[in-house]
Amino acid sequence: xxxxxxxxxxxxxxxxxxxxxxxxxxxxxxxxxxxxxxxxxxxxxxxxxxxxxxxxxxxxxxxxxxxxxxxxxxxxxxxxxxxxxxxxxxxxxxxxxxxxxxxxxxxxxxxxxxxxxxxxxxxxxxxxxxxxxxxxxxxxxxxxxxxxxxxxxxxxxxxxxxxxxxxxxxxxxxxx
Length: 176
Description:
Protein Transport Mog1p, Chain A; Acetyltransferase
């Protein structure tokens, strides 16, 4: 569930079209991270998926999912007026740990824990609303998911890539 997209569809008559990542949007992953093949990423409703290489291969592979949604010719969403924590709260046994808004309300960052298939996971989701180069309203999401036990070891890599995603997205789009 992505609350911002649901809001845009229900209240603004928007459509939400997942867009592929482009070379201009592809930031360099942190060391030990690699790209999932594009076709598989798209089948998973993602523009891009990064996986963390570990040996031995863990039960749950730490990952980053990047999504770029074209919301059409509507006003850019002020994310701070929406409850973006609903995206985490909808997950099994979820606990929202943190919510913050930045960039005049066009960027929200949410952290939380949840359970999936018996695994305790931690996630960080950043959402950026901006105007695309074609004038359409865009929503980009950066979601890092890691087993709770590995969070302290991996969070710096997640935030490093999050910073790169944010710089690349705003530089490419001319957004906020």
